[in-house]
Write a structure and sequence with these properties.
Length: 466
């Protein structure tokens, strides 16, 4: 039911507090009153925004348990490999395009675990002989930051350029430099700013909702944000129809639940006045399911409020030594990758379940006539294909969402070249940077290329485009 359409609301409308809480503001999701009658565009004629997330995990996969036997549309009908089963369990499999057999055209000297990170940028790394161990820096901007540049250039005027989340704190002590510690870097080659991930959900919350920063030590005030905007919310609802009122209620309830989830957990340290989950547990004791759920909901909330349209989640760094205690593993994921054992398999499956968790959080958040997963691209990959071989060919690639009809939905399985033996055949073809350009074109239709040197791409992967 559409009512009071003469009360036009801007997409950037926020609810603001008053009096002592005047600094507090809560963004709103896309409401019917902001959209055209079909709910597929803004009332002023502009397209609904698209969003992007990079999701990176270290130590590769087991290709024999990764690549589906069926290519093309409806790839899951031919049987879902065990490592991808979490996509089915979370009911997000139709949203996922999977690319296999792709060639990473890295052209430098291999130092293991670093060269494959170029799948997120399209540039060879820069060696760092001044740092201990295996060390390199990004050779060019990462795809999330190139897309953030495109969003800024579009004139969106968002308060936050991008969000950088992490999951586990336990990376590789043998691997150093920006390539090993971050999945986001902005700027031009030779003059990059590295954006490191934050694994503390409370810090991510504060970075998104900056109004709370100056009062972060005042728990009572910080957690009363919804009370502060209640009066203005009540006035706004008088202008809205039934569905918009329901959406506002659901949106505010979601913020309330997220605040409660962060604040009501057992304290991570002996600070009585800050009983919040800060992810400070030791290796093997981190609650990564919980942390990822909070991070996923933070990203979804930021997207729904149009605070930002770009995020990254570095779940496990290259050669990361995390012990996945959530599932009872006793060895680190890096060590298990060399052993290629059951713990390694279970760890990969656990990580893909965290990817599915993010997709589900976006799917469950309304946006226009659909949901946030309908309007997003969630790019998932690792620096290796098979952990034991340290190869960076046939890397795992998942592309979730369909960006408002830009990508194939239901997703397809695109295979650049088949394998003769999934246990040791790393034959590859094409160019992984083609996927980067394909995703960038969803945000900048005039983008000519991505990457540099041997990895540069000026061609899209049309097979995964709608």
């Amino acid at each position: 039911m559409h009512v009071l359409r003469n009360h036009k609301l801007n997409r950037r409308t926020v609810l603001r507090g008053s009096g002592a809480a005047a600094a507090i503001a809560v963004g709103l999701p896309a409401l019917e009153i902001m959209l055209n009658p079909h709910g597929d565009a803004l009332a002023g004629g502009g397209e609904l925004p698209r969003r992007f997330v990079s999701f990176m995990f270290g130590n590769g996969v087991q290709l024999a348990n990764w690549e589906p036997s069926t290519t093309g549309p409806n790839w899951s009908a031919g049987g879902v490999p065990s490592l991808l089963q979490p996509l089915v369990d979370a009911n997000v499999v139709d949203y996922v395009n999977i690319c296999t057999g792709m060639q990473n055209r890295f052209g430098g000297s291999a130092i293991t675990h670093h060269e494959g990170m170029s799948i997120f940028s399209g540039y060879d790394f820069v060696l760092r002989p001044d740092l201990p161990g295996f060390a390199s820096d990004w050779g060019g901007p990462t795809i999330d930051q190139v897309i953030a540049d495109a969003v800024v250039a579009s004139g969106a005027g968002l308060p936050i350029r991008s969000i950088q989340c992490g999951l586990t704190k336990f990376d590789s002590p043998a691997d150093n430099g920006a390539t090993a510690k971050a999945v986001s870097a902005r700027g031009e080659p030779g003059a990059l700013t590295v954006l490191y991930p934050e694994q503390n959900p409370v810090e991510v919350w504060d970075s998104i909702f900056g109004e709370f920063t100056s009062i972060k030590d005042d728990r009572e005030v910080r957690l009363s944000v919804l009370d502060a905007v209640a009066e203005e919310a009540a006035r706004l609802k008088l202008k809205l129809g039934v569905k918009d009122n329901q959406r506002v209620d659901a949106h505010l309830q979601g913020i309330s639940e997220l605040q409660t989830k962060i604040s009501a957990l057992p304290p991570a340290c002996d600070i009585i006045d800050s009983p919040t989950h800060e992810n400070t547990e030791s290796n093997g004791s981190e609650d990564l399911v919980l942390v990822n759920q909070i991070m996923s909901e933070l990203i979804a909330t930021a997207f729904a409020c149009d605070v930002t349209r770009v995020a990254s989640n570095m779940v496990l760094s290259p050669a990361g030594e995390t012990v996945l205690g959530d599932i009872g593993n006793s060895g680190s994921q890096h060590g298990n990758s060399h052993a290629n054992n059951q713990e390694y398999h279970d760890g990969i499956q656990f990580i893909i379940a965290r990817y599915a968790q993010l997709l589900a959080a976006l799917r469950d958040t309304p946006d226009g006539a659909g949901n946030l997963l309908d309007s997003s691209i969630v790019f998932c990959s690792s620096e290796l294909s098979q952990g034991a071989s340290h190869s960076w060919q046939r890397q795992p690639i998942l592309i979730g969402g369909h960006a408002n009809g830009y990508l194939e939905y239901p997703g397809i399985h695109y295979q650049a070249v088949p394998q003769s033996n999934p246990n040791d055949d790393l034959t590859s073809a094409g160019n992984t940077s083609d996927i980067l350009l394909t995703m960038l074109r969803a945000f900048d239709s005039n983008a000519a290329s991505v990457g540099g040197g041997a990895q540069v791409s000026s061609s899209v992967l049309s097979e995964i485009m709608a």
